[in-house]
Amino acid sequence: MPPTPARVTAVDTYDIRFPTSRELDGSDAMNPDPDYSAAYVVLRTDADADGGPEGHGFVFTIGRGNDVQVAAIDALRAQVTGRSVDALCADPGALYRDLTGDSQLRWLGPEKGVMHMAIGAVVNAVWDLAAQRAGKPLWRLLADADPEWLVHQTDFRYLTDALTPGEALELLRRGRDGAGERTARLLERGYPAYTTSPGWLGYGDDKLARLAARAVADGFTQIKLKVGADLADDVRRCRVARSVVGPGVRIAVDANQRWDVAEAIRWVRALAEFQPYWIEEPTSPDDVLGHAAIREAVAPVRVATGEHVQNRVVFKQLLQAGALDVLQIDAARVGGVNENLAILLLAAKFGVPVCPHAGGVGLCELVQHLAMFDYVALSGTTEDRVVEYVDHLHEHFTDPVVVRDGHYTAPTAPGFSATMRPESVAEYTYPGGTFWAADAETRRGHAV
């Protein structure tokens, strides 16, 4: 008898939380005390017993509400279990279309928010599974893929006034020219990075100066500072950073959506003496026209946004309106790899550089693959393109990022680099993991 085709047998979810708020790692003007967290999903198959791969994915959150995100992933379980592994890996876009097209769950968006991010986690887990089965890192699976197949993976609904499938196919075909040489350069040199590690708002000036100096010594040519809570503090902190890194290192600033439009313009102009390279998320991520007004008023400071943009449709409008200079995709905010393909294609059509958002829990691990695919097989350049890097929590992944001399080293292990270490899952699952159980016991003891 021929072997029975492998199927998805379980969709397991975990509420993983890390106590980063205690050291103010990740702190910014809008999010002063984040506990970096992941709603983590594992697709199990009946090939697992024979050593076959599982699919891993997650949504990044910052603490409270991570259980809500887990519940959203759980709501998709019935639509995933029982599916053929071969079919899923041959066409992840079919699952993407089924999940985004579920009429009752779609009502909760549509295509935005907690439900949409849950779909992204599951879809990303399928891509992880597909890349593992192919024996390739995801960036290489995508870069080696037939352009027609990649177009089939892309959802063009609501986009064709800005990007047609025919235009996307031409971009991808053109991107194959020189891909072999770019792959070799990527494997040799890596992909440019910048670091936010010095710039968290809760850090004092001494720590800011020490970490900024370390960043330059480590080969980074761009750092980023959080701003937006107090203008006098921001002026002082920018002055400290510029005095440490010198004139040749770019300093980006990030307001994390803190300002109204007029306030953003006034604040950025007040920081202009420190030559900020870009202002990130100056206002609501949904305010397309507000971003356009800010961009016009603060030039030559660039406007960057995208980590909280809900879907490809809002990205389309930001590009059509000339509202941003730097597009920042996020691997876990939209509907997974499939929707990020659409966004990368839009950026290529409009000639806007992509500088992905990372940090958090595992975002560096994921988004490096998308940036590397874009370089090798779509945009063909790393000019004015960098991937964010934050030196937090990588030790909890089996294939953590490696950054050398300010560059991401290209992953070579098969998959999407999304697998968390079993020990970390056991320790930081909330509330019953060993860390959180011991923490609760300590707090009870202090309360007595």
UniProtKB/TrEMBL annotation:
Pfam families: MR_MLE_C, MR_MLE_N. Residues 205-301 form the Mandelate racemase/muconate lactonizing enzyme C-terminal domain. CDD domains: rTSbeta_L-fuconate_dehydratase. GO terms for molecular function: L-fuconate dehydratase activity; magnesium ion binding. Its EC number is 4.2.1.68. SMART domains: MR_MLE. Keywords: Lyase, Magnesium, Metal-binding. The keyword Metal-binding applies. It is an enzyme of class 4 (lyase). GO terms for biological process: amino acid catabolic process; carbohydrate catabolic process. It comes from the Bacteria. Its cofactor is Mg(2+). It catalyses: L-fuconate = 2-dehydro-3-deoxy-L-fuconate + H2O. This is L-fuconate dehydratase.
